[in-house]
């Protein structure tokens, strides 16, 4: 008998097994490469109508990165102010901010006027986040959000939500295909380091080309940062922070991001402002561990808005002080230019 001959009963059994195996393929595919992938894919497919197979294929390309888990465990914000400030308030970063402001002055001031946000604050955000676009991050965004959303229990809820948002964003809100995007170890993208939910809610197509590009379109970058601040309650022309001088009997206070008391009340508790301020202005009191001892600062609504970008008061103070240094540098250049004319 030819070797290809096989009894009918055995053929039937193999056929049945093959059908069972084929039927199991979609279920096996849904199991995914990462823990929790199957449920995530089901949610995104349900909410957007995307193909589960395509979503799984995309997520299968992502890799858990130990370097990302290491990086999130040692944030710069864990440093005291005396060590944190020198990271961002350097002569090089200030000079680069002044040069950036002067080069893009017309665009910056147009955006600032439109959104009511100080132009030096916009520049300082770019300076602190990415050194004015010089370092936007080298991690794959997909790797970062998969690693933190599916393998980092302390903040898995937040990062899984950001991963879901990334998968749901329309292509015209991203600088390229998802698996090509790069950013920070936390999955933030572009010059302003926007997370996916911030891209969804606040990013702006300012150059009118039909897409949002926070990597290569400066109009989109500047307008998106300004829009973020405006939508979070930035007060046009309002104060950000002001230094205070305590007396020997000053009441000890815990800082809260939202302004808690009137400036008049804090003065009654022993904290004198070192500049003229509205005594009825709502404020909080922030104490920082400075290089020469404790520093005391009144913080206002606009300071709280900066903490919506990054919740650390150290971050907000670095942005504010860098913005002041940039504004002073631009003003000095303007005065020098006026004197030579």
TrEMBL record:
Alphabetical UniProt keywords: Signal
InterPro entries found in the cross-reference section: Lysozyme-like_dom_sf, Lytic_transglycosylase_MltB, MltB-like, SLT_2
Q: Where is the Transglycosylase SLT domain?
A: 39-324
Q: Which residues form the active site?
A: 129
Specify the superkingdom.
Bacteria
Q: Which PANTHER family match?
A: MEMBRANE-BOUND LYTIC MUREIN TRANSGLYCOSYLASE B
Q: What is this protein called?
A: Membrane-bound lytic murein transglycosylase B
Q: Which source organism does the UniProt entry give?
A: Rhodanobacter glycinis
